[in-house]
C-alpha cells in the first residue's frame, strides 16, 4: 500500500499507530513496509525478550507503595506500557511483574530493567513513525 | 566481558531503531545508525573509565 494514499484527516494513520503500539511491528506491516516492520518490530521484540531473560522487572502502579513512592512508579510504568501486548501478556502470565529478591540479586537485573524500559520507549518511536508514514509526512 | 556485550547489544538495538526512523534514504539511515552505534559505544566506554576512578 502506498504511504500517501490516505486523504488528510483520514483515520488510517491512527489505526496504523495504534496497531504498532499494541503489537510491535504491526503498524509498518499493515503499511506493507516489511523491512521497517522487521527492523523496528524485531528490535522491540528482541529488546523485550532479552530484558526478561536478564531477569528484568516490569513496573506497574499497584498503589501499595507509601506516599510519593507511588508517583515514582508512573514514568517507568508508562515506558513499560509502550511494549503493548507484550506487557499485557506478561501481566496475564504473571511474568516479570513480581518484586522478587532472587531476581533483584542477579547481576543482570538492572540491565534487564533497562532493556524492558527501552523496548517500550523504542516502540513509542516506531508507533510515531508508522503514524507519520500513514499520514504522508514521511516517505 | 558480559557488561561490554550487553552494552553492545543495547547500542545495536537503539541504533537500528534510531537509524530507521530518523532518515529518508537507505544510505543515510545506514550512516546515521552507524554514527549512533559508535556514539553509544564511545560514550559508554568513556563513562566507564571515568566512573572507574571514582571511589564508591
How would you sum up this structure, described in words?
The complex is a heterodimer of chains A (139) and B (56). Chain A is mainly α. Chain A has eight helices and no strands. In chain A, 41% of the residues are buried. By secondary structure, chain B is mostly helical. Helices cover 86% and strands 0% of the residues of chain B. The model of chain B has no long low-confidence stretch (mean pLDDT 91). The chains are: A mainly alpha (139), B mainly alpha (56). The A-B interface holds A 36, 39-40, 43-44, 46-47, 50, 54, 107-108, 111, 114-115, 118, 122, 125-126, 128-129, 138-139 and B 2, 6, 9-10, 13-14, 16-18, 20-21, 24.
Could you provide a short overview of the structure?
The complex is a heterodimer of chains A (139) and B (56). With 139 residues, chain A is mainly α.
Largest interface, per-chain counts? A-B, 22 and 12 residues
Return the average pLDDT of chain B rounded to an integer.
91
The biggest sheet of chain A, with number of strands, parallel, antiparallel or mixed sense and barrel status, is: none
Backbone structural class of chain A: mainly alpha
Mean pLDDT of chain A: 89
* Unreliable stretches covering 5 or more consecutive residues of chain A: none
Unreliable spans of chain B: none
Global outline of chain B:
elongated
**Roughly how many Å is the radius of gyration of chain A?**
17 Å
Distance between the termini of chain B: 21 Å
Task: Please tag this protein with its features.
heterodimer; A: 139 residues; mainly alpha; elongated; B: 56 residues; 86% helix
Amino acid at each position: 500500500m502506498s504511504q500517501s494514499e490516505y486523504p488528510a484527516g483520514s483515520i488510517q494513520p491512527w489505526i496504523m499507530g495504534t496497531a504498532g503500539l499494541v503489537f510491535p511491528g504491526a503498524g509498518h506491516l499493515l503499511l506493507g513496509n516489511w523491512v521497517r516492520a522487521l527492523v523496528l518490530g524485531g528490535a522491540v521484540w528482541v529488546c523485550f525478550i532479552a530484558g526478561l531473560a536478564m531477569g528484568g522487572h516490569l513496573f506497574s502502579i499497584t498503589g501499595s507503595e507509601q506516599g510519593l513512592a507511588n508517583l515514582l512508579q508512573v514514568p517507568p510504568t508508562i515506558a513499560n506500557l509502550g511494549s503493548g501486548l507484550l506487557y499485557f501478556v506478561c501481566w496475564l502470565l504473571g511474568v516479570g511483574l513480581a518484586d522478587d529478591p532472587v531476581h533483584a540479586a542477579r547481576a543482570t537485573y538492572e540491565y534487564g530493567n533497562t532493556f524492558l524500559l527501552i523496548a517500550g520507549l523504542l516502540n513509542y518511536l516506531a508507533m510515531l513513525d508508522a503514524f507519520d508514514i500513514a499520514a504522508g509526512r514521511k516517505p | 566481558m558480559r557488561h561490554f556485550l550487553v552494552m553492545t547489544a543495547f547500542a545495536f538495538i537503539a541504533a537500528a531503531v534510531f537509524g530507521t526512523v530518523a532518515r529518508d534514504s537507505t544510505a543515510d539511515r545506514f550512516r546515521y545508525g552507524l554514527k549512533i552505534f559508535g556514539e553509544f559505544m564511545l560514550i559508554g566506554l568513556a563513562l566507564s573509565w571515568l566512573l572507574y576512578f571514582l571511589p564508591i
